[in-house]
Amino acid sequence: MAAFAVFQLVLGLAFSRTGTDAKSFFAAGESAPWWVSGLSLFMSFLSAGTFVVWGSIAYDLGFVAITIQLTMCIGGLVTAYFLAAKWKRTHALTAAEYIGRRLGVKVQQMFTYLLTLFTLFTIGGVLYPVGKLVYVATPFSLETCIIALGLMVILYTAMGGLWAVLVTDVLQFVILLAAVLILVPLALEHTDGFGSFVEKVPADFFNVFNGDFTLGFTLAFTLFHIVFIGGNWAYVQRYTSVRTPAESKKVAYLFAGLYAVSPFLWMLPPMIFRSINPNLSGLESEGAYILMAQLVLPAGLVGLMLAAMVSATASTANTLLNMLAAVFTNDVYKKLINPEASEKLQVGVGRSMTVVFGLITIGIALAVPYIGGLVNLVLSVGAISGGSLLLPVLWTLFSPRQNATSILTVSLLSLTVSLFFKFGTPLLFDFTLSRAAEMSLGVGLPLVLLAIFEWIVFKDKAEDDQYIAYQRWYTSRASEVPQPVAENSTGAVSQNTFALRAIAISFALTGLSIAGLGINGGRNVGLIVGIGLIIVALGAWVGWSARTIHPTLHNPERED
To answer: pTM for the full model?
Structure first.
């Protein structure tokens, strides 16, 4: 685990030379390969909660854990078809920049400050389980683990910018996938095959809906993920950091495709462990994933899987930190404090704010046990802020009628009502909403309010004045690119080549390490070495593709 952490840190720091201007530091020069952005989006969505929380549900209730995660596939498909290309066509570096142009600076600042507050708590909720995983596996205290991991994430995100985030995400994906591909067949072998596994679990274990996770909850969760995947400011960076709208769609389609398959792989180990040891109770089931790994994997690969889980969670933290730094630098510092700031100064401010925001989130992570626990923190933040602050902005991508007044009204009213039901009704009336009701209210109320504005309040208005002004800017922006430009004039070729070579070397070293761990373990050597060599081959292919990159003439503003 320590070796992997150091390797990832060195890999992230290697990208400090690519962040020479704001666009390269915050948006990877808008030239990242679509498959790199897609894998990064996928990894940014994973966390230790996937294996601890959903793993616990998979152990206790079975297939419903897969059902819940398939809602993320639906969210990705809707985003790919309707939203990703629209974000790319806004010509905005961040979602906040788009809000400023479409709705005005005051609305932009309100959304920026509110989402920054909620995002800081989200990152804190992400760092806490990372620290807890390492705390369980090492002799260090929980506080020490949280602080050390938080500082590591801050360091490589601050130095390498979005490129460091993207490339480390790809490496984490490969390691995690390799570990699970090794774990699943070994787990099935231990339980005497799939047929034996099915016979040993409860009769309702393969029900699509089970326990508290009903059809109603699943539908609410699906709607939430459409809004969250399509509108989360950190994920918007993945759609805008590629060259064209067509590539931004591929980013979301890749995410959806991975979430159509991965839940079956991710959730099988704890489900299989139920057939081996059905006696876990209460919070013990949260350890089902690691217990299954410890039972069948060689010691070195158990450490590698733990490292991959930790890294998957850290991926969410570094993504959100980079997004917050980008928003503050581009939409607060440059717009309000120093409009004449040079590119070098903007990068410096971005790095400084990454450190500041990172230190705040470490403090929040340390306080998680005292503010209601991890699940309560993360789910409540998502339910309260997701619909209220993300859905109204998504609506403006399609509606020419909405304006600053309507969007502010919907957002603030929805947020107030959600906060009242979260904190007010339990104290005043001893009434608390269920998780499904909380999530339905968080997304459903702003949806209803937006529909009222769209088709009742504004029914006689074809276009709002703010939309007309935005369209004028958009038209003038498109006309500013009269001729195609060469990719190498912006350094895109150099950045892409460096990134692909870093990925290739990382794959090769990872594949060889896995093969070595398999040989050293002495069990199931063929399977483990085979997976390792496949990763080495993938590294060779990525390295070869880096050699074939060459400067081409393109016009990213007009490609689709």
So the answer is: 0.87
